[in-house]
Amino acid sequence: MKSASKSDQRFWDRLASKYASQPVSDQETYEKKLAITRKYLTPQSSVFEFGCGTGSTALLHAPHVNYILATDLAQNMLDVGRVKAAEADIQNVDFQRIGIEDFDPDGHSFDVVLGLNILHLCRDPEAVTKKVRALLKPGGYFIQSTACLKDGYSMLRFLIPLMKLARKAPHVTYLSKTDLDSLLDEAGFEQVESFYPDKKGITAHFIVARKR
């Protein structure tokens, strides 16, 4: 399985302060995704999130679950998350710097795995999706949101490589909605709910999939 590169890690570390200060771009859509997710959470839920960034979503879900392990490559992102958790006196979220590709569950499994706006940033989405399934308990849920940049946005295929050269963009894997559906199916998931915002600009396919 291809792990994220050091350059990607440095990119997100550099971005942490700016990322943390930016408001949610589409609050209505974000709130809807939070509401859908909480249908699959219980006070007993053990949750794993990869690519958690500054932990904003994990901290919002924390009151609804037993425990969340929130992981990311960027130490600076995680440091922001720890400060926010301390300020809110949230004690059931642990932050760990590691990519999902290198994460060792050490025999533990989870009721829910969150992968929000991250799968298209992985170098091997197929392998990551299979690992997610391995991390889940029987019947567990993979809740993910993925930008499918193959479906339109053709200019980005030219812009992103240029931005990467200028250290203005991380690695991006171009997926279509069909690719995403195939990844989930072949990894052993059944889609139970989905949401695609009818908005202008880049939007992400939000899918709740159950481990078969």
Automatic annotation (TrEMBL):
<dbReference type="Pfam" id="PF08242">
    <property type="entry name" value="Methyltransf_12"/>
</dbReference>
<keyword id="KW-0489">Methyltransferase</keyword>
<feature type="domain" description="Methyltransferase type 12">
    <location>
        <begin position="49"/>
        <end position="142"/>
    </location>
</feature>
<dbReference type="GO" id="GO:0032259">
    <property type="term" value="P:methylation"/>
</dbReference>
<protein>
    <submittedName>
        <fullName>Class I SAM-dependent methyltransferase</fullName>
    </submittedName>
</protein>
<dbReference type="InterPro" id="IPR029063">
    <property type="entry name" value="SAM-dependent_MTases_sf"/>
</dbReference>
<dbReference type="InterPro" id="IPR013217">
    <property type="entry name" value="Methyltransf_12"/>
</dbReference>
<dbReference type="GO" id="GO:0008168">
    <property type="term" value="F:methyltransferase activity"/>
</dbReference>
<keyword id="KW-0808">Transferase</keyword>
